[in-house]
Amino acid sequence: MLSSLWLVIDMHFFAFLRATGVTLQLTAVSLALAVVIGLAFAFLKLSRNPVANLLANAYIGIVRGTPLIVLLMFLYFGISSIVVLTSFWAGSFALAIHAGAYVAEIFRGAIQSIDSGQHEAARSLGMSRRQSMRLIILPQAFRRAIPPLGNQFIIGLKDSSLVAFLGVSEIYSTAMTAAAANFKPFETYLVAGLYYLVLVLIFTVLVHRLETKLTPDRRAAA
Amino acid sequence: MNVIETRNLHKHFGELHVLRGVDLAVAEREVVVIIGPSGSGKSTLLRCLNFLEMPDEGSEVLLDGEVIDPARDDLDKVRERMGMVFQHFYLFPHKNVLNNITIAPENVKGMPRAKAKEVARDLLSKVGLPDKEKAWPSQLSGGQKQRVAIARALAMDPEIMLFDEVTSALDPELVAEVLQVVQDLAAGGMTMVMVTHEMGFAREVADRVIMMDDGMIIEQGEPAGFFANPTEERTKTFLSQVLHA
User: Fold this and answer.
1) pLDDT (tens digit, 9 = 90+) per residue, A97-122?
2) Rounded to two decimals, what is the model's pTM?
3) Model ipTM?
4) Which residues of B touch A122 (CB under 8 A)?
5) I need a surface site. Which of A18, A71, B137, B208 has the fewest CB within 10 A?
6) Does the pLDDT value for residue B215 go beyond 70?
């Protein structure tokens, strides 16, 4: 088994390497978009405007209430009937819209968790609502959002495998193709799993480093 | 000239009528201490002065003799002129001590960084913490936090300082260091309104003591007479409770 595993790794090394690049691009693009979408909808949800609330709740409710694969197919066929998109971009947008809903809830929770006294102290110093949000609340909320955000990003990285069904040559789709060609599905999917596992482990370390870097006060207090 | 004044100040929280027509005038350099049982509206009064709470329609708050109209005036500009210190400090935990103090002058007043630092360092010396500029709030004791909070408010060069039970969350042995800073400020001529339970401090530092109960000012006077011969029954009861506690 070990020798045939080695054979699979060796035979598809460059294909998986390219595929890893695609997976990373999908993840990076979709999560960057998800952060923007998430932040925007977090503000809509926190807004006192009932229309904004409704919009945010509808978006979050629909996304959370439907499986990603359905959203993926729906958007792919839906969007491509209006504009011509490559499967990479269609996939990225769908992943972003999906993750954005969860990121919105993470940001909303983080912003709400900041003591209202922080905002009052900022306002008492003459800061506007906007300055208080930008200088005092958001920096603290971001720090607090990193652990759940890191978690969501790991989920996003693994969710990118579903884009295989749109024909994007990322890790999972490469594994499907390889397994069909080499008749060694067990070893091939094992290799695919290892690729994801290593990526997630690297990512976990990076998130931890980022959190440490952004919270110098916690290190100092310890 | 009165630095701050209220006329017929009312405040409701829903059905709850927290302030029932408060008339308060604080002269320049005056130190006014407000006492009273919890729920009497002391903190709400203080928070209405800088519009952290919006006074009810028909109430008037005047700053330097000018009526402030929340609908027309820029309340951010109004708050710039009043410093406030809170019971629970509310230092910004993601900023070190120096940046806690410089953030408002830099961002609100547009003060150059170098100048803001100079102001902050000067104030840190005044509150007795010249060596703490690089410390994080989480590394400070309660008394140190509160002194930084005072310096932070002073950095905006306010015309008046509002102190909302600034020693109530402190361990007893840390109260004195904060009161000393407040006393130094008073001696330096700062106009201030202070809600406190520190009766000894009120007696020593206040120019005038105000007793509030049930959303109204029920008695006031210069401290010696006020504490020696309160006229209102509720004041007597309250003082006997806090002084013999």
Assistant:
1) 999 999 999 999 999 999 999 999 99
2) 0.89
3) 0.94
4) 92, 104
5) A18
6) yes
Own/partner pairs, B71-79, CB within 8 angstroms, 24+ separation: B75/B51, B76/A123, B76/A126, B76/A127, B76/A128, B76/B108, B77/A126, B78/B50, B78/B51, B79/A123, B79/A124, B79/A125, B79/A126, B79/B50, B79/B51
Residue B87's pLDDT band, with cuts at 50, 70 and 90, is very high
Tell me, yes or no, if B173 comes closer than 8 A to chain A by beta carbon: no
CB spacing of A124 vs B82 below 8 angstroms: yes
- A218 and B138: CB-CB below 8 Å? yes
Determine the length of chain B: 245
Name the residue facing A217 among B90, B93, B108 (closest C-beta).
Answer: B93
Q: Does A222 touch chain B (CB under 8 A)?
A: no
Cα dihedral sign for A148, A153, A156, A158? negative
Helical pair A2-11 and A13-46, crossing angle rounded to 10 deg: 80
Residues 6+ apart with CB under 8 A from A111: A42, A46, A137, A138, A141
| CA-closest candidate to residue B188, choices B220, B150, B224 | B150
Would you put residue A170 in left (φ > 0), alpha (ψ -120 to 50) or beta?
beta
Cα separation, A68 vs A99, whole angstroms:
9
User: What residues are paired with B84 via a beta bridge?
Assistant: B162
For residues A97 and A63, what is the distance between their CA atoms, to the nearest angstrom? 8
Cα atoms in the 13 Å half-sphere on the side-chain side of B114 = 0
